[in-house]
Amino acid sequence: MFRSDFIPHKIYLEEASQDYPLTEKILKKLGQIPCEIIRSPQSLLETLQNSRDAIGEGKKFIFLTRQKGEFVKPCPCTPHHISCHYIIINLDLNCPLDCTYCLLQHYLSNPLLTIHVNHQDLWEQLDIFFEKNKHRKIRIGTGELGDSLALDHLTENSRDLISYFRLRKNAVFELKTKTMNIQNILDLEPAENIVISWSLNSSQMAREEEKGAAPVERRIESARVIVKKGFPVGFHFDPLIRYPGWEDGYAQVVKKLLRTVPPSRIRWISLGSLRFSPLLKPIIQLRFPQTKIIYDELVPGKDGKLRYFRPLRLELYQKMIDFIQREEGENIPLYLCMETEEIWRETLKKTKGKGIF
Amino acid sequence: MERKVIALDQIDLNDERFRTSYFFSLDHLILSIKKIGLLHPPLVVFRNSHFLLVSGWRRVFACLELSLSPLEVLALEQKDDLRVFLVAFFENLATREFNLVEKAEVLSRLKKFGVNETEIQKHYFPLLGIPPSPFHLDVFLALADFDFSLKKAIHEKSMTFPTVRLLGEFRPKERMLVLPLLLSTGQNKREEILESLLEISRKNDVTIKEILDDTKIQETLNSQKLSSLQKAERIRLALREKRFPCIFSWQESFERSLKKMHWPEEISLKPSAFFEEDALSLTFHFKNEKEFQARVGKLQKLASQSDFSRILKKPSDV
Predict the structure, then answer these.
(1) Between A and B, how many residue pairs show a Cβ–Cβ distance under 8 A?
(2) Residue A266's beta-bridge partner residues?
(3) A40 within a domain of the structure (yes/no)
(4) What interface predicted TM-score (ipTM) does this complex get?
(5) Contacts of B75 (CB under 8 A, 6+ apart)
(6) Edge-to-edge strands of the sheet including A61-65?
(7) Distance, in angstroms, between B247 CA and closest chain A CA?
C-alpha cells in the first residue's frame, strides 16, 4: 500500500463541522470507521503529545474541521533566498506519508490529518483573490502542508479544484504528490493550465526516506498516464540528497523519467537540496534513528535552515542539470527552490525566480 | 511513625532501595553534629530483621564518621515500599532542589515501585520541573542506569540535560571511553565533542572506539606536554575536521592562501559564514591619515599579487 488507499483508524469530527457536504461525503466513504464527535481537539492533542511518537500516531486519525483562517496565502519561501512567487492553498494539513525529512514534523503543532470541510469559504476566498489579481499570472497549488492527492480518494478535492481552476486562465494550478492516487483526475477533461506534478527522488532515497510514498517508478508511470490523458505535468527533485552513489541514483531516475514522459509535456522541473530547520534534527533522530541523511555537511544559511555546504549543493544542481540536458530535457523550464542568488547564478545563469513561467 | 533509639549497625545501609542522593560532602554536617548534636532524626522502616534507611543518608554517614551510636530515628510503620519512598521524596522536595542525577534516581525508583509512565509524567514531572514528555522520561531513566563514576562526574561538573541526553545515546562502554574528554571542557564544547562522535559514528558506520583510535587523537591523548584542557580542545577540532571534511578543507585552503601572501595581521579578511556568499569582509583600524594610507597601500600591493585571485575563488571556479 502506498497510502493511496489510506484508511484512518478513526475519524474525529468537530461538532460544528457536521453539516458540510464534504463531511457527509467522507463519512459515507468511511462508513465502517469509528467516528467521534468532539467539541475541540484539545484533549485529544494532549493525549497524543504524551505518546512516544505523537507525529506517527496523529497520522492514524482524520480530523474533520473548518479552516478558520485563510485558505489562500503567498508561499512564505524563506528569508534571504529567491522566491518563485507561488501561491498556496491550505486545504488539508498533514499527510499520511511519513518522509524522514518532512518539515511538517516540526512545523505543525497539530499532528492529526486535518481536512477542512468548509469549501464554500475556499471558493469565496479564491474569487476575491482572483478579482484582486486578474491581470497577474498566478501559479497556485495545494501540496505545501500535505500531499495534494494522498487523501483524494476520500475528499475528491482534485475534482472540485480542477473544475474551478480550468476557468481561471491567468492561473496555472498545480497538484503535487508522491502517490499514484490519480483516479479522480483521470475522469476529468484535461486543461493546459492544470499541472499534475510529482516529487521525485532516487529510487534508493524514495525507498529509505519516503515511507508510505509510491516507488519512484510508479510515480513516473502515473505521470505517463496523466500525460496520455492530456494534462501537462511537473516534477520536483526536492529534496536532492547526497549519499554514496547519488550521482548514479539520480542519473537513473532522470533517464527513466525523460524516456517515459515526453519532455514537451513537462511544464517545469524544480530542484531543491535537503534543507531543514535545526529544530527538526532531534525529531528526525528520534523518529528515524537509522537515517544518515542528517549527518552530511549541512550548515546554517541566512534563513537559519541547515543546507549542504555551498560547493556540495552546487555539485548536486550542476549534475542534475547535466543529467536532464543529456536526456534531451534542455528545453524544460528549470528552477531552484529556496536557493540563494549565488547558487541561481552559478547553476541556471540567472538570478530571478519570477517570470520563469 | 514512632521515635526509637537504635544502634547504627541495626540499619542495613547496603539496601539502597529508598536512596536517591549519592554525592554530598559531610564536613559541615559533622561539624554541626559535633557542636549541637543531631537535631532531626533519620527516617527508617523495618524490613526482614533490619531497619532500612528511608531518608537522612548524609546524617547517618556523618554519625558513622563520628561513631555516634545508638541514635534516635523515626520509624515508619508502612508495608508498601512506594508509600515509604513517597515519604522520603516529599520530605526532600520540601527542603531542597534535586539535581539531574537525583531526579533520575527518583523517577527510576517510582517506576520500580510500580508507578506507570503516564502517572509519572502527569504527577511527578511538574514537581521536579521536567517538561511532560516521554522523551524526557527516557533520558532520565537512561541516566539512572549510567555507571556510578559517570553519574558522579555529571553531578560534579554540573553537566546539563542536553549533555546527558547525548551521553544516553552512547553504549555503556563508550560512555566510559569518552568521559575523560568531557572533564576539562565547558558545556558547549562538551556537547560538540559528543555530537561529533555520535554523528561520525552514524554517518560512517564506525564505532566510537574506532574514531578515538585514530593516530592523531591517540597522539593528543597520550601527549605529556599538553594539559587536559588543551587535549580536549585539540580533540574537539580533530573531530570537527572528521565531521565536516569539505568545510574544513575550504577554511584551511583560505587560511593557507592568506599565509602564503603574508597577509598582515592588522587587516582582517574574512569569508562569509560557510562561504555561503561571494562577498568577503575586510576590517582594519587606523588612528590617523598616515596609518590609513599605510593600510590602503598594503592592500593595493596585496591585490596586485597573483595569489590574490585564490582568495576570491568561488565554489563554481573549482
Answers:
(1) 58
(2) A233
(3) no
(4) 0.87
(5) B1, B2, B3, B4, B44, B45, B46, B51
(6) A35-38, A10-14, A61-65, A113-116, A92-93
(7) 7
Q: Do B274 and A292 touch (CB under 8 A)?
A: no
Average of pLDDT values for B108-137? 94
Which of B244, B276, B312, B318 to mutate to probe the A interface, most A CBs <10 Å?
B276
For B132, which residue in chain A has the nearest alpha carbon?
A50
**C-alpha dist (Å) from residue A132 to A127, A136, B143:** 9, 9, 59
* Look-up of cell digits 503535487: A176
Q: Is residue A355 part of a domain?
A: no
Give the model confidence (pLDDT) of B47-57 as tens digits: 988 999 999 99
CA A289 vs. chain centroid, Å, equals: 24
CA distance A11 to B83: 42
Alpha-carbon Rg for chain A in angstroms: 20
Q: What is the pLDDT of residues B139-159, one digit of tens each?
A: 999 999 999 999 999 999 999
The DSSP element (H or E) to which A198 belongs, if any, is strand A194-200
Q: How much is the pTM?
A: 0.90
DSSP A4-40: TT---SEEEEEGGGTTSHHHHHHHHHTTTS-EEEES-
Query: For residue B115, how far is the Cα from the chain centroid?
Result: 28
Cβ-contact B151, B20 below 8 angstroms = no
| CATH class belonging to B1-79 | alpha beta
Question: How many structural domains is chain A composed of?
Answer: 1
Q: Which domain holds residue A78?
A: 68-109+118-348
pLDDT in tens, A264-293: 999 999 999 999 999 999 999 999 999 999
Q: Give the closest of B138, B277, B315 to A311, CB-based.
A: B315
Determine, yes or no, domain membership for A208.
yes
The answer to the question of residue A56 being in a domain is: no
Q: Residue A135 maps to which CATH number? A: 3.80.30.30
